[in-house]
Design brief:
single chain; 12 helices; alpha/beta
């Protein structure tokens, strides 16, 4: 692998893991990470050729913007939110503040969830405000895409910066970036509150009982798991350790997986082979919808690992 490919992989992994950590901390109301992230992205976007200052360091009451490039007349709001309400509020606050007249462009930098499909939303209020939703809303995937066009020489200082700022333990030389991003996306999706609902499902891990339930298919499933294990087990473990998900969030992920996989198992008449295949297709569709490169086998391994933990196709209560 050449230096450029290795550097792109390191950038992708670092920023993807940072995004996941910010999302998890926000879900338990630890928003101090957003404040720390302002200075991180101020320094990272130097490699975009911006010359940014953190306005909050000189103006504690700054509204709607966090970072400013006075030379290029650009203002940036750093936020972990991607909803239209937040975007509308930021744009209105920016254009209604006479102190911001010196800035000609407002950019929203989404450091948590990826941007949504805003095709039906008019952020300009009938051309009252100047705002291009295609170019003025940037998420982490956009940053990674931008850096992916750089040469190895331009990427090297970015990698040095990321290594100095982010504690990344995953060995990027031996890890495929797509599998890392895929597993991170799985955790992001599964830990989203909108997917959670309580259910009376058995929580005990009992693989022996599962072997008896699926005697016709169990060897097939375990052979598939054993083949994938050397390539994905280490990555999955390290990402889980890095993500910092608390016990409540883990419980919600488990319950969501239990509910969804049980529905598929019922649909396919208790055939775990067919149900697993459709479950993989389901998550592939959800992850690919965010326009992110992904590794389908990483999805399959994640689900097989949760099958062993009895969070996929949970054993019924006796």
């Amino acid at each position: 692998m050449d230096k450029r490919d290795r550097y792109i992989k390191q950038v992708s992994i670092s920023l993807a893991i940072l995004r996941t950590n910010i999302e998890q901390l926000n879900k338990i109301n630890l928003t101090d990470s957003n404040i720390i992230a302002e200075n991180f992205y101020r320094d990272l976007l130097v490699f975009y050729r911006y010359k940014l200052d953190n306005l909050n360091e000189t103006n504690k009451n700054a509204d709607s913007i966090d970072l400013v490039d006075k030379e290029n007349q650009i203002a940036i709001q750093v936020t972990s939110r991607n909803d239209t309400t937040k975007i509308h509020k930021t744009i209105k606050g920016f254009y209604n503040n006479p102190n911001y007249d010196e800035y000609k462009q407002l950019i929203l930098l989404l450091i948590g969830k990826s941007k949504l499909e805003y095709s039906k939303t008019d952020f300009t209020k009938g051309n009252l405000f100047s705002f291009d939703k295609k170019d003025d809303i940037i998420d982490i995937d956009d940053i990674i895409k931008k850096f992916s066009s750089y040469t190895a020489k331009k990427l090297e200082p970015i990698v040095d910066f990321l290594e100095s700022e982010i504690d990344i333990k995953i060995n990027a030389k031996n890890t495929k970036s797509n599998e890392v991003i895929t597993i991170i996306k799985m955790i992001e999706y599964l830990s989203d509150d909108k997917n959670y609902k309580s259910a009376d499902i058995n929580e005990e891990s009992d693989p022996d009982n599962k072997r008896l339930r699926f005697v016709e298919y169990f060897d097939f499933l375990m052979t598939k798991y054993e083949r994938l294990y050397p390539n994905y087990a280490g990555t999955l473990l390290e990402i889980k350790n890095l993500s910092g998900i608390d016990g409540v969030r883990i419980r919600k992920i488990n319950v969501y997986l239990q509910n969804l996989s049980d529905d598929y198992l019922t649909k396919y008449s208790n055939n775990p082979k067919e149900a697993l295949s459709e479950l993989v297709n389901y998550f592939e569709n959800e992850i690919s919808s965010s326009n992110t490169n992904y590794d389908k086998l990483a999805i399959e391994f994640y689900l097989l690992d949760e099958l062993i933990n009895c969070n996929v196709f949970p054993n019924p209560k006796e």
